[in-house]
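Thread: quick sanity check before group meeting

JM: Hey all, I'm pulling together slides for Thursday and realized we never actually wrote out the predicted structure for the chain we discussed last week. Dropping the sequence here so it's in one place. If anyone has concerns about the input, flag it before I start.
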Amino acid sequence: MDIKAPEEVLFTVPQALERLLAFPSTLGWIFRGQANSRWPLLPRAGREPYYRRKPISPPADIGRLNHWRQLAVGYHSNVPVPSNLFEAMAHAQHYGLPTRLLDWTESALTALYFACSDRYDEEGALYAYFADYYVNNDVNDYAAVKRVSRLRVAPFDRRLLAQEATFVYFPNPRESLKPAPIAAELGEPSGVNLLKFSIPADFKTHIMRQLRELGVTRKLLFPDLDGLSQSFVEEFHRTDAFKRRAAVEALEYEI
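JM (edit): ok, ran it. Output follows.
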């Protein structure tokens, strides 16, 4: 019988902080923000059009990764691609290759930012997850990891550091993350290791303003010139979305 992830609603940053303090990263909880609450917790290697249903050995995504590893050496000499499969997978994921990894963070505020920083007309979602299993960094065979597991690698990029990034590995990239029972000593009343917090579309711009007041901005999470430039673009879109919503509310009030 499938277990359903408990779902709550977040409206403000103070409310989010009060609730999410119950999931300390020091105990192993991690977080993910998604701009659309309907998106499944599924790595890109398992999504269309990247997934190939025809069984081959190695699977298509692992074949792409192996090819990427062969070519990547000549493209980024400052950060050598590691020889370990899973560490190389983390590098490939970070630079945009569809892999079996899903990005998570140890920072609830970072996850809240990503849940609210895009698609202002759609409900967002923040997830809290406690991984029961970890990838052994000495393992170099994807087939040896049979369960959904957390992958921790040494940060190799300033963005990873700024975002307090971590990863979750899916042995079957077509199976989305599902909640499972959790140890009672962790103190989660729901008794499961995955919880969902929805953020209504109407509150996204409000939360983004509050996050900005706390210093959680794109230029903080993307500490490079691209992040700085995008922070200006983001501010324009956020302000524009706020003005559009205010105009609609004013019209509805007049009617």
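AS: nice. The beta strands are 7-9, 29-34, 101-105, 124-130, 149-151, 165-169, 194-199. DSSP finds eight helices and seven strands in the chain.
JM: adding both to the slides.
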